[in-house]
User: Fold this.
Amino acid sequence: MSINAEEISVTASVREIAKRKRSEEAMQEALNSSRTQLKELADTHLAQMEEGRQIAESALRESEEKYRLLLDGIQNYAIFMMDPQGQILSWNAGAERIKGYSADQIIGRNFACFFPPEDIQLGRPEEVLRITAARGRHEEQGMRVRQDGSRFLANLVFTALHDSAGNLRGFSEFSHDLSESKASEVRYRGLLEAAPDAMVVVNVAGEIVLLNVQAEKQFGYSRHELIGQKVKNIIPEGFAERIIADGTRSAAEALAQQIGTGIELIGRRKDGSQFPIELMLSPLDSSEGILVTAAIRDISVRKAAETHLAQMEGRYRGLLEAAPDAMVVVNVAGEIVLLNVRAEKEFGYSRNELIGQKVKNIIPEGFAERIIADGARSAAEALAQQIGTGIELSGRRKNGSEFPIELMLSPLQSAEGILVTAAIRDISVRQKSDEHLARTVGELKRSNDELQQFAYVSSHDLQEPLRMVASYTQLLAKRYKGQLDSDADEFIAFAVDGCNRMQGLIQDLLAYSRAGTNGKVFSEVSAEDALQQALTNLRITIEQSGAVVSHDALPALRTDETQLTQVFQNLIGNAIKYRSAQAPRVHVSATNSVGNEWIFSVSDNGLGIAPQYFERIFVLFQRLHGRNEFEGTGIGLAICKKVLERLGGRIWVESQPEKGSTFYFALPERDEKS
Amino acid sequence: MPIEVLLVEDSPGDVRLTREAFKDAKMHINLHVASDGAEAMDFLNREGKHANVPRPDLILLDLNLPKKDGREVLEEIKESSALKSIPVVILTTSASDADILKSYKLHANCYITKPVGLEGFLDVVRSIDSFWLSVVKLPREARS
Assistant:
């Protein structure tokens, strides 16, 4: 698939939107949680401090175990008691968490160890106790040191404890780590101003309670012009209506319907100009009732892009949807960015269920691993290894069933990095038919082997009894010729002749069944040498017939030399055997003008063959001449055909009766490997 | 002194043909026949009813035999210090390269494929007679 730049930018923009959506959601979430935290802190801080202090006092005064247990349960605050000199007497879970000491480590030690060394030098620990003893209660903020040496800002309340007689019995310290709450406060304040969007907080009367700098800029008002004003002034329609209670629902209900979804509305600036906005709402329960925080984003650029995008996406999607395969676009994090309808169908998910999800959900193994960078290679390298080759993997449908797939990957360079388009093809049918084919081929091969074996064994075993019949009829003929009557001699002669022919047939059958069964030994063979060997084997025949065999330059090619020799020998032997009244002339040549094969020809000036026999002469034991004309069983050409077919070649004939024949055979040109 | 030949052959027809062929032999030949491999070994080891047989000067061994295969017989002969000096001529219908190679690896002294025609067969037996029993000097071991 070729992807042009436009399509790449479309994909990138699609991604951009998805990503932005996620960041909005994250922001909203952070906003919500920090607000909740803040409120909780504010509400519980004072109450707990007071309560804790009272508990601590009661515990010491009454020494009741239940108070100790209560104290122990408090996690957010360090609470412990000291004797009048500051030696630590008790320790709760909060103290252990905040200061880092366990009870065993700290009880009996002086509380001065919580102070920074410089404060100890200044005598701050003693001073704290002195002041507390004098005033009964002392509160301060100051740096403290944890067991591991790290420092933190703490809010501390010291209380002097007296017995019923009014004697000083010791002190309690009640403290907490300010950094724990400070951080979230700062985060919340920062969030409003640091938010990339305009933020306004509105009450259920539709009045603006709070806003950030971006909101001032966005709408062209200054802060004081907006606080207390109706939000309708800047968002004329669709906002106030959404959050104000009406006859059918409460404000909370109204709001609940809107939370977390982007609402596209129109904003109006101070100068009256309008622009498209996207609104994200979240509620804030406050003492004044429900407040609504609205994040307002100017989406005019996006709107324009979206229009363009819609067209582009339409085209890209058209391309994607037109593909015959399931298509999934994945980023290098292995997340699905885009997919087509076929992918939905193939995997049984709807689009929304897959976008943004890990591709591992639908292709559990072998895909994500291929495109994700690891220590040894970058994502681009990882991918480069996979491009354009079909990878066979397993796909998983929503219902959990798996099916075999073939994957073709192609990369898309986008602004966000590489995206990978994967064409996914269900190959269960193909795999089944492959299996079927392999099975059929296996069966065929087996039955072919059996047939081969059968032919060999049967002809071999037939030969034994025949040898007996032949030997003894021949012995009869030899020993008793002329001793019996003339009929007997004739009968014996027929029997002997029949045996001889039968033996010839069986031997040829054996030769045929063996032909080409010896492993093919492919080597660089000089056809010239093979021809010379054939001529050597035919020397006597050639000499006796006075045949002249000529040849052109012959090529070298990769084939089996023995078998090539046999083919030459059979064809030249035939050319001489079926000669006309003229002295036999045979010419051998070769050409590779057509395709990647060599075509050899063996031409003669012999008897020639009528066209109706062109096919038949290659069939086993088919003869065109009577036994009294020519010897032979009709095996030579059948063997040539079999041998050539096994070498990947073929054989045919062109001939005219009385003029001579040309036998052609083709052999493939092979490279080293085959 | 007659020459003792052991023919190991299961086909009575071949046995008879061999006998017929040896009729014209130059030497006086005593042809003994074992019709399977087990009997051949009994003969060679003079066991059972073969207790009193002579030690053969030459063995003609077919490969495809009942009970004990000719290849096993060959192997046992050539592994036996008492028997291995007896020349063994493989005389079989098999022309397979595998059989030929295997036989020579087992130290067969020569390998002959039975010709299909009567004349061919007679020629072969005559050749054995003229070569192995006339030309060749066979080892003369103490006969016990």
Q: What stands out?
A: The CA atoms of residues 137 and 159 of chain A lie 4 Å apart. Confidence is low (pLDDT under 50) at residues 182-187 of chain A. The radius of gyration of chain A is 50 Å. DSSP finds 22 helices and 21 strands in chain A.
